[in-house]
Input
Amino acid sequence: MDTLVSESKWMRTRGVAVMDMAVAMLIDSSRAVGHRGGYLECAHHVEEAFGQEFDTSHFLVTDQADAVLARAEEVCDNLSLLVMELVTEALKNDDWCARLKSILDPLETVELSDEEEAADEDGNGDGDGDGDGYE
Output
């Protein structure tokens, strides 16, 4: 669980989570526009077949779907990842390798002190050595 927490924090601090949300918004809005287009095309065929107007006002996807898709495309087109900017800057320096390691390595992990390790030698996490799991 600690790895998951540290990796999600790493992604949030470097812009990866923003990219994930932008791509999800693009996928959802393009799907809505596609459904709307298909529904309206089907309604047109029904109108032609029956010779009367088909009511599309109850369709859940509004004509604003195109505008939502356009906004999502604009966000994706102008998306920049902080981590890529950091990598680009690191490569401009003589110590680029050390700088890349500091950017790409996972966050620091907390290590137990000798005292904390000795307190938990029985392996059940309560530190009393009797193995029952209770202090």
In short: The chain has two domains: 2-80, 108-135. The chain is about 65% helix and 0% strand. Residues 2-80 form one domain.
